[in-house]
């Protein structure tokens, strides 16, 4: 059976046909132990064209630069060393699962001082630490910034974010994560969107594929796999077979609203109980027409300004009251709202009110 999801942009209802084929388990779950780790480091970007940190405003830049030069055998104690081509940065990266020593990963470089741009700069060797405080990678290389800036005596212009950039393959892994994946006897699968029906379908699909009970649903977000019962040589072999099993997930009834762009996305399972909707606009107009009163000729009077204000309040007719029958489908709901001639912004407010009235039977997400 074909399923559709509807996207409302402006006042246009766009049906998007969802894939009829089921989804692979690898796209529905996260496998326990197969995860990345965040890395962070503090370093220097050099070689900037006068767009670095102002060392009077960023004393930490001068401190780390002095320590680095001293480690290289350069003594600058007591010297007035204030270059403008150096910037202090944070370096972040993600250590992927099962990454091996010697392989390379991408890093992101972000200025933390008052540097104007990192364009053309070079990141000096920076160790990257994990949450345990250990060094797992070392980063170095030329920064590729995603913006540009120019300035003159009277004005300046900035395009993009020149104070942040990346270094593709800019870090080399020096330490591996100590995790014995091959020794696992059981493996948990965490659903990205927890749902009891989807978890039960995953359990049934795995047990059907192996023709014996090797998987068990623990809750709406977890399915336990008994590696020993699969008869596979290792957990890796078991996952290579399991991750490609097809399962049709159960989707929640959900309404997603983006207030900035006025976009409304509604699933096919959204239902609305019997409800009446009225939409109208109020127009408030205030006009100031001060009246100037002049004194009579040859009199000793003064010119007086008398304030005169006119205020009117009008309500635009024509929208009336629209009624939505109980158990209405998505297409009927949208047709009823469009019959009012409302704008996307007003439609968002109407959906909020319907949800507050308890008539919208779906998860309401506002972004």
What is the structural class?
alpha+beta
Radius of gyration: 32 Å
Secondary structure tally, helices: 6
* Multimerization state: single chain
Overall geometry comes to: flat
Into which percent range does the helicity of residues fall? Answer: 10-25%
Q: Any idea how many domains? A: 3
User: Going across the major beta sheet, what is the strand order?
Assistant: 5-6-7-13-9-8
Q: The biggest beta sheet, please? A: 6 strands, antiparallel, barrel
Give the tally of β-strands. 28
Q: Which parts are unreliable, with pLDDT below 50 for 5 consecutive residues or more?
A: 9-20
Strand content: 35-45%
**Overall residue-averaged pLDDT value:** 78
Terminal CA distance reads 31 Å
């Amino acid at each position: 059976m074909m399923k559709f999801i509807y996207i409302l942009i402006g006042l246009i209802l766009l049906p998007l046909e969802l894939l009829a084929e089921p989804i692979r388990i690898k796209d529905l779950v996260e496998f326990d132990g197969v995860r990345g780790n965040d890395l962070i480091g503090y370093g220097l970007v050099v070689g900037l064209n006068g767009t670095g940190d102002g060392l009077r405003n960023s004393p930490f830049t001068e401190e780390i630069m002095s320590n680095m030069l001293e480690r290289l055998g350069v003594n600058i104690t007591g010297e007035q060393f204030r270059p403008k081509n150096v910037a202090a940065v944070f370096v972040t990266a993600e250590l992927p699962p099962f990454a091996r020593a010697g392989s390379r990963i991408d890093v992101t470089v972000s200025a933390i001082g008052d540097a104007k741009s990192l364009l053309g700069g070079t990141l000096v060797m920076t160790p990257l630490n994990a949450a345990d405080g250990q060094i797992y990678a070392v980063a170095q290389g030329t920064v590729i910034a995603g913006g540009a800036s120019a300035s003159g005596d009277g004005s300046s212009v900035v395009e993009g974010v020149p104070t942040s950039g990346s270094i593709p393959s800019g870090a080399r892994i020096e330490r591996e994560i100590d995790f014995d994946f091959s020794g696992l006897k059981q493996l948990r699968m965490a659903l990205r969107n927890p749902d009891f029906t989807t978890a039960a379908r995953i359990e049934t699909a795995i047990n059907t594929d192996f023709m014996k009970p090797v998987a068990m649903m623990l809750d709406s977000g977890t399915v336990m796999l008994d590696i020993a019962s699969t008869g596979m040589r290792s957990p890796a072999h078991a996952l290579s077979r399991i991750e490609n099993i097809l399962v049709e997930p159960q989707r929640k009834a959900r309404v997603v609203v983006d207030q900035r762009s006025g976009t409304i996305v509604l699933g096919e399972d959204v239902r609305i109980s019997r409800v009446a909707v009225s939409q109208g606009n109020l127009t408030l107009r205030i006009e100031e027409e001060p009246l100037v009163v002049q004194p009579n000729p040859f009199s000793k009077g003064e010119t007086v300004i008398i304030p005169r204000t006119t205020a009117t309040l009008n309500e635009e007719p024509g929208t009336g009251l629209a009624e939505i029958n109980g158990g209405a489908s998505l297409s009927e709901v949208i047709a009823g709202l469009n019959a009012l001639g409302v704008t996307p912004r007003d439609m968002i407010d109407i959906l909020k009110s319907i949800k507050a009235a308890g008539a919208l039977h779906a998860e309401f997400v506002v972004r």
